[in-house]
């Protein structure tokens, strides 16, 4: 019950993205979900099978090895924890990886787990997958999508050119394009989730992590802010109402999400929660939360997501990704005082968004 997608940009730059939702039998404790708040907003009491936790579905196990999983938590934890231990001893080759996976006990595979990812060895980058299959797309060649969100992700990437996305252009280098593709997909998925709750109802979502290849190493995109707007085109341009902001950052291997929702009455904070999401191979209780600092909302990478409802119905959003390489001049400006805030994007970033928003509606 997940969404994990593995693809490559221009058949060169790997991109791995995964959601955060883990589901199981309903317990007495409710679960807070960054996009929808309490689980009970989607699953009323007595639903039996419900989201029960947030865990990372994609991980960098070594500089040359990135993996995504879905299915049995027990099986995934056993396989990935063991693989991480092997990868820490030496850089694994594709032959080493195949041998390790071939030696996993059949009873573990029978619990129901799917894996995919990338590895770099002396022969270059390689992709791998287990208990799943590849799907051909026009824009990204062969991709893999896992979990209950597999069809949802496959459809999105198969129709990628028709999506309303700004900031993904041929003028970018391949890493910039990978970041923009991953961030724009995550932004679109989260917007749909907040507006309709359908993806949560199908047991995937809550948030998305992004892994790509930075030089010769796999790394997670470790600083991004998503900004969600409810918008409409007017004679003067675009009337956009801020709905939510979500900042993704890391403290070691722990993902930290700070999600701020905005009151309908104006620029006042309705809720401000920080979520801690661990990897599958660590024990939740082993993390020292005293070392965690609530992240600010500024980011080098900013993803603006504009929802333009049509006659009260949800339509695919317009997504604009800003990947600003100069960390000394971040494009997002946010000031919070007494639960009220002022948000802005620097003029040279904001103007193209407004112009293109009008053109695309």
Task: Briefly characterize the structure.
The protein is α+β, with helices and mostly antiparallel strands and 361 residues long.
Structural overview:
The chain is α+β, with helices and mostly antiparallel strands and 361 residues long. The protein has two domains: 4-219, Glutamine Phosphoribosylpyrophosphate, subunit 1, domain 1, CATH 3.60.20.10; 222-359, no CATH class. The chain has seven helices and 23 strands. The protein has a seven-stranded mixed sheet. Strands 11-12-1-2-14-15 form a six-stranded antiparallel sheet, with helices on one face. A four-stranded antiparallel sheet has the order 7-8-9-10. The radius of gyration is 20 Å and the shape is globular.
How would you describe this structure in keywords?
361 residues, alpha+beta, Glutamine Phosphoribosylpyrophosphate, subunit 1, domain 1, 2 domains, seven-stranded mixed β-sheet, six-stranded antiparallel β-sheet, 7 helices, 22% helix, 40% strand
